[in-house]
Design goal:
With 440 residues, this protein is an all-alpha fold. The protein has a single domain, classed as Ammonium transporter AmtB like domains (Ammonium transporter fold, Orthogonal Bundle), CATH 1.10.3430.10. The chain is built from 13 helices and no strands. Helix 4 crosses helix 5, helix 6 packs antiparallel against helix 11 and helix 11 packs antiparallel against helix 13.
Length: 440
């Protein structure tokens, strides 16, 4: 953060023949510097408070996951699924502290994996505060929370403990290093050798969080197989409905609330002007826009699912609407900061149909996911990655990712296909990465 400057020698000249001009100039500049430092310290405090508050919101999503999972499973499995959600946070906290953060953000490093800050040694630094660790830990356990839904009702507790710890300590951190660390091989913040001249714009994690969690859960559910009774002897689908719509709705609203930390909070800082100092427009405006795009995508997906499922099945279903809403949020997460509100509406509309289509496909393939987590976070997350590559606006991309003249932006917005190519690579490597660990 730049400081204001005062030159005592220049000030002496301006004071002219005033008695003790040199002493007066030194005193004035000293007071000026002290005030300047207070502004700098206040700026750091504001940014860290903003990030801490965002981290608290993201952590509150764990309660949302717990309620959503509890309501979506049968009553006999409620305590088990809630225990797995507690374990995600607790075990995830230790493993992310010891290994995960260093692997994800330890710098300097190579493009594949971080190499510093294991156990938060040599911390904090000029680049990273403790608030940043807390924020990223909340993201890591959110990815694990997605996985817990996919393999609900048929997983031994010890097996899940190992699975969750491995995900938060290694699998997820490596992917977040690729796309979010300044050293990552596909990061938009990398100073050189950008993927297709752009890197991947996955602002809050449609791919890094949602697709990673979905693929990890998908392979877990595939290995375990469907729940007993999920498909009859003729191969027809049998609904095993969750026991509490009330908990599903409560969990959905808690997740909605937490998403305002998840997406807008990913700016990390808020006290930053765009353009000339003193302007009403700055990063605080982008934060507000991101909250709006997040809201509109979720709302559109919820209403589209409501009427779409009514047309397809002939009845209203609150669980379907809640999942549609969350699918819209998962889709907009990647591009929430770089698209206009009207594009967010389109994102939510398509996300709803992507979720419906993925559920139909899962049923045909006899894939069993009690919370539709792999379909929701994987299908809608993948759409969100493609959506960003199509609709990212040049002005917003340059504001959020400054320093690279001519950076590619959305194909539909006239920015060419290079960003789309980078995002196609992201989908391929994210889908392939958790799969390499499915037998571990």
């Amino acid at each position: 953060m730049a400081s204001l400057s005062c030159s005592a020698s220049d000030l002496v000249t301006l004071l002219g023949g005033v008695p003790n001009a040199t002493d007066a100039a030194d005193y004035i500049c000293g007071r000026f510097e002290a005030i300047s430092n207070k502004f700098i310290e206040t700026g750091y405090a504001v940014d860290n408070t903003y990030l801490l508050f965002s981290a608290y919101l993201v952590f509150a999503m764990q309660l949302g996951f717990a309620m959503l999972c509890a309501g979506s499973v049968r009553a006999k499995n409620t305590m088990n699924i809630m225990l797995t959600n507690v374990i995600d946070a607790a075990a995830g906290g230790l493993f992310y502290y010891i290994f995960g953060f260093a692997i994800a953000f330890g710098t300097p490093s190579n493009g594949f994996i971080g190499k510093h800050f294991f156990g938060l040694t040599e911390f904090p630094t000029e680049s990273f505060e403790y608030s940043f660790f807390l924020f990223q830990w909340a993201f890591a356990i959110a990815a694990a929370g997605i996985t817990s839904g996919s393999i609900a009702e048929r997983t031994q507790f010890i097996a899940y403990l190992i699975y969750s710890s491995f995900l938060t300590g290694l699998v997820y951190p490596i992917v977040s290093h690729w796309f979010w660390s300044t050293d990552g091989w596909a990061s938009p913040a990398r100073s050189e050798n950008l993927l297709f001249g752009s890197g991947v714009i996955d602002f809050a994690g449609s791919g890094v969080v949602h697709l990673v969690g979905a693929i990890a859960g998908l392979w877990g559910a595939y290995i375990e197989g469907p729940r007993i009774g999920r498909f009859d002897h003729a191969g027809q689908s049998v609904a095993l409905r969750g026991h509490s719509g009330t908990l599903v709705v409560l969990g959905t609203f808690l997740l909605w609330f937490g998403w305002y930390g998840f997406n807008p909070g990913s700016f990390v800082t808020i006290l930053k002007a765009y353009g000339e100092s003193g302007s009403f427009y700055g990063q605080w405006s982008a934060v507000g826009r991101t909250a709006v795009t997040t809201t509109l995508a979720g709302c559109t997906a919820a209403l589209t699912t409501l009427f779409g499922k009514r047309l397809l099945s002939g009845h209203w279903n609150v669980t379907d609407v809640c999942n549609g809403l969350l699918g819209g949020f998962a889709a907009i997460t990647g591009g929430c900061s770089v698209v206009d509100p009207w594009a967010a509406v389109l994102c939510g509309f398509v996300a709803s149909w992507v979720l419906i289509g993925c559920n139909k496909l899962a049923e045909k393939l006899h894939y069993d996911d009690p919370l539709e987590a792999a379909q929701l976070h994987g299908g809608c997350g993948s759409w969100g990655i493609i959506f960003t590559a199509l609709f990212a606006k040049k002005e917003y991309v340059n504001e959020v990712y400054p320093g690279l003249p001519g950076r590619p932006y959305g194909l539909v917005m006239g920015g060419g296909a290079r960003l789309l190519a980078a995002h196609a690579v992201q989908i391929l490597v994210v889908v392939g990465w958790p799969r390499t660990h499915k037998d571990q």
